[in-house]
Amino acid sequence: MEQTTSVREVSRVVTAHKQREGGGFIVRRPFPSYGLSAVDPFLLIDEMGPVDYAPGEAVGAPDHPHRGFETVTYVLEGEMEHEDSAGHSGALGPGDVQWMTAGGGIIHSEEPSRALREHGGRVHGFQIWINLPARLKLTTPRYQEIPASRIPTAATPDGRARVRVVAGQALGTRAVIETHTPIVYQDWTVDDGGDVTQAVPRGHQALVYVFEGAVRVGEAGGGRRVDDGQMAVLEPGDLVRLRGEPGGGRLLLLAGVPLNEPVARYGPFVMNTEAELVQAFADYQSGRMGEITRTATLR
After folding, report:
1. Which residues pair with 112 in a beta bridge?
2. Count of Cβ atoms closer than 10 Å to residue 2 Cβ
3. How far apart are CA 153 and CA 284, in angstroms?
4. Where are the beta strands (DSSP E) in 10-60?
5. Backbone angles phi, psi at 37, to 5 degrees
6. Taking the model in full, what pTM does it have?
């Protein structure tokens, strides 16, 4: 007997709060918050900006450690520079993505580019933390840096819904990024009158974060309106339906297979037990995670 598919409805809507991070930059953060600690396997969503910096104002996140999870940095506007204790360095511009698996531990620095720090400019982007399963907590760190030109794009036949496919697949287009666990990460623009239904596997936890305009999510009663700065956590199902409100909207569609494992987290370390967390701090403080040797000249 053929199984019927169902559209995911909105379970709850969370409004992002603002807080200061890193060297003093402001983020919009739907979670973790007092009412929602995580959406397994996602640990954190930070929207950086949009903000316009005057010369000398731009700040980032100086040297800091990570262990036990992945960070995904997606730049919409501006330029970022990064270096780490494994000898990696580089720069990210508009549309670029960095998928960093911290694994067993790395010291990382993320800053606005020198040009942006000196001359000012606009910054907008995202950093999302994705948990790693216990078997991969101490895996060897790795990077996937994908320039904007290599991020696949697709559109509905009428052109009113367009997507950049960072992870997973949409409208017959598959991402180039490889993920340790099944992940969907898509940047959708849905114009007024746009209507698109996207398949998301039933075993995934799914959410929609709107960062421009407004969209309707779901099917019942015409869908639930989700506005700029709000995140919808979705119920189980097979499909996500998105419809543009007047003026249109832009959003991240995120989904992943829940790990359903215990989480012990503090600051930049996310492990499974308190003992592993204590060990992470000991390894960092003793220098076992290394340090950044600055030999590269970044732009």
Report:
1. 80
2. 4
3. 40
4. 10-15, 17-21, 25-31, 42-53
5. -80, -30
6. 0.93
Please check whether residues 163 and 246 belong to one and the same domain: yes
pLDDT tens, position by position, 179-189: 999 999 999 99
The single residue listed with the structure tokens 């909207």 is 249
| H helix or E strand, kind and range, residue 281 | helix 274-285
> How large a percentage of the chain has pLDDT more than 70?
95
CA pair distance 113, 255, nearest whole angstrom: 31
Most distant CA pair in the chain, distance: 65
Q: With bands split at pLDDT 50, 70 and 90, how would you rate the model's confidence at 191? A: very high
Q: How many CB atoms lie under 10 A from the CB of residue 128?
A: 22
Q: So what's the pLDDT on residue 296? A: 44
Tens digit of each residue's pLDDT (9 = 90 or more) over 218-273 = 999 999 999 999 999 999 999 999 999 999 999 999 999 999 999 999 989 999 99
- Number of Cβ within a 10 Å radius of residue 299: 11
CA distance 128 to 47: 9
- Any idea what the CATH number is for the domain that residue 52 is in? 2.60.120.10
Which of 95, 103, 179 minimizes the C-alpha distance to 140? 103
DSSP annotation of 152 reads -
Contacts 24+ apart (CB under 8 A), 223-228: 223/10, 224/9, 224/10, 224/13, 226/10, 226/13, 226/251
Domain that includes residue 116, residue range: 17-150+261-290
The token pair that represents 64 in the structure block:
């800091």
Flag whether 297 is in a domain. Answer: no
82 and 220 together in one domain: no
